[in-house]
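Hi U.,

Before I forget, here's the chain from the pilot set. I'm dumping it here mostly so it's searchable later in email.
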Amino acid sequence: MAPTRATRREGAFRNVRKTLKFLHTVGAIGYAGAAAALLVLHAQLPDPEDLERFATLRMAMGAVAERILLPSIALVLVSGLLAMAFNRAFHNAGWVWLKLIFGVLVFEGTLVSVQAPMQRAALQAEAALAGDVPVAELSAPLGPEWGSLWVVLLLAIFNVVLGVWRPRGRRRGVRGDAAG
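Structure:
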């Protein structure tokens, strides 16, 4: 027997959900890897007086934030939103809505508290290397940047745990399989 139209459509939706789950997972891995790399680079930052090394690390951090961290979190957010749209089981699942809220918090926190300051610091370090900015201006406090990076990383880890654990509400037995 040939597959029915409904069977073909369900197979197509299943493929879309699996693709979205794959993209969501890849994005989460990229985000966690970039955040870990930024933590390691941040811990290696010398005093700004060692201008060449300081600027090199700052520019590397800016590149990681721009080319890996930001695209990864965008991929996680977009694939998660699409997974919610394509999987009916997610429409009424409270844990999914909680994941969405925390996903948006991670995205905003990444943009405002991590990516933007790292880009500014990289540009400022590059300008200092060129002699356009005094080294004294590079000694901005690093604590808030370090703390922000840990906060968004912990929120992202919480989001992964929430996706794996998938707490059950009142409606037992409803389980989606898209972006987890």
